[in-house]
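Review form for a predicted model. The reviewer records the input and the model, then writes brief findings.
Reviewer: anonymous (R2)
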Amino acid sequence: MLVRNHMTKNPITVGPDDDVHQVRYKMLKGNFRRLPVVADGKLVGIVTDRDIRPYLESAGCKPVKEIMTRDPQTISPDDTLERAAQILLDRKIGGLPVVENGKLVGIVTTSDVLEAFLEVMGVNVEQTARIDMLLDQETLDLAGACRIISQEGSEVLGLGTYREKWGESPIFYLRLRSTNPDHLAELLRKLGYKVLGVRP
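Model under review:
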């Protein structure tokens, strides 16, 4: 998954000389929590609702350039969404400006990453469930489980593995569209699969 496919393109921006009340108006109007700061077509900073909050009650006009984060961390539209997620997590920030050839082309946020995660997991499709299982026999595999599910008239939307703790045996999961996932789980159990459970 690439950043360019999940970012907000051509984001609303503010200038370094805009005051906090102008920024607050744009944030409220667009339901934003952060805005890139651009001067002469170049990204020079980023300002968040947390940055401006202390100055909203003051009588004077505080310019953005005095409170913004200068030279913020950026990412390329051709970077992976996984890398964006790692940067957001490591730096404990909620959004990354996306820059290509020195020009601001988008912004990617924690919400964008979570939506993409749900999309790839198939969670945002109606009537889906996840079956978790352990594969501890050489004769049983995910391909076989997928065939069984398909033969029962259901559809496998995605599959993968995860570990509750590193070093433990991997847990395999199937995200499927089915009106009766409990029936499928029971059928797999009868055929020798070690089904751990059915989850939404």
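Findings: The first helix runs from residue 20 to 30.
Further findings: The two ends are 24 Å apart (CA to CA).
Recommendation: see findings above.
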